[in-house]
Description:
Layout: H1 2-22, E1 39-40, E2 71-73, E3 82-89, E4 98-107, E5 112-113, E6 130-131, E7 153-154, E8 156-162, H2 175-182, E9 186-192, E10 195-196
Antiparallel strand pairs: 1-2, 2-5, 3-4, 3-8, 4-6, 7-10, 8-9
Amino acid sequence: MKHSLLFVLFLGVFAALAADAQAKPNPYDALPKVPPFPLTSTDVRDGAPLAAAQMSGLFGVPGGRDLSPQLSWAGAPAGTRSFVVTVYDPDAPAPGGFWHWLVVDLPASTSSLPTGAGSADGKRLPPGAWQLANGAQRRQFLGAAPPPGTGRHRYFIVVQALDVASLGLPKDATAAVLTSRLKGHVLGRAMLVPFAERE
């Protein structure tokens, strides 16, 4: 009887821990609240698995093409003077997660980016926009490559509307510098969160 009770208690603790692991927080919930605006894509869907094109061939995922997804947005708040686009995996097994793409100084007139705008040459980005180095120190979009067995990874594709035309970042700025510089300048935020997982 005693052993049965211990087993039941163990199962209860295990179930609670499993539920805890599934209830992962949205990292953007910790930031100051700003109005949302719509974000759509012909390549990715919110809450759906990423296609092979958005997986990372550079990191050895079979069929991965490292193609940044097509993005379209509208309804940014009045006073928007530029946009920042980022792709972030908070579930990566590394301190601070992993940044897959960081684009800054997108003109306020921008309302979409074509598939593959995150190529290393940046030729499909609007004039004035540029890419910071991602977590692999590459100035481009790096597709998803969750290590096998690490569960489901979420990819936060986020467009943020800013009240400045440029953040004035140096070319060697890191993701940490970007997030720090964004404080007090974000007027609105649009978001899609697809996922990827490998056994």
